[in-house]
Specification:
This protein is an all-alpha fold. The protein is built from 8 helices and no strands.
């Protein structure tokens, strides 16, 4: 795998492992989360491209909402009105993610993992509801970084295809 592509794949998988590890640390006695963290560690090591190509399109589907989560943090230069508008968009995006079940996406996954994925989504939402604003922003930043990595991956892959 060429350098730029390998770097993006590594960063994507690293960021995903950090998110899952944090969730596992917050729920240390939860067997489903512990099992998912172990699986994630293995698959991100053994099949990192598969992870990017599986998780990335899901993130990309919600890119406008994901980037809205990030908009409040970078709105300071836009003035008070711009900052307030960005904060409103971020708040609406946060509510969307916390209130959406993602049932269609979960059902589209591997049948034997549907229950685990639905459970992880539920626990992540439960965890987010109890986080401070700063902790939530850390998670939002990580999701934005994952999406950015996926976009970079698609661009790098297209660049490699043109060279071939």
């Amino acid at each position: 795998m060429p350098g730029a592509l390998a770097d993006v794949v590594y960063l994507f998988n690293h960021e995903l492992r950090l998110l899952i590890s944090d969730l596992a640390a917050r729920y240390p006695r939860d067997a489903t989360i512990a099992r998912t963290a172990k699986r994630a560690a293995l698959i991100t090591r053994d099949a990192p491209i598969y992870v990017v190509e599986t998780v990335g399109p899901f993130l990309y589907r919600y890119r406008e909402k994901i980037y809205a989560l990030d908009s409040a943090g970078g709105a300071g230069a836009a003035g008070e009105a711009g900052a307030a508008e960005a904060a409103g968009e971020a708040s609406a995006a946060e509510a969307f993610f916390l209130d959406t079940s993602f049932d269609d996406e979960v059902r589209a996954g591997a049948p034997d993992r549907v229950r685990d994925v639905a459970y992880i989504i539920l626990k992540t939402k439960e965890c987010a509801r109890g986080m401070t604003r700063g902790e939530k922003q850390g998670y939002f930043d990580a999701v934005v970084a994952l999406l950015d990595c996926y976009v970079d991956y698609v661009a790098a892959k297209a660049g490699e295809a043109r060279r071939d």
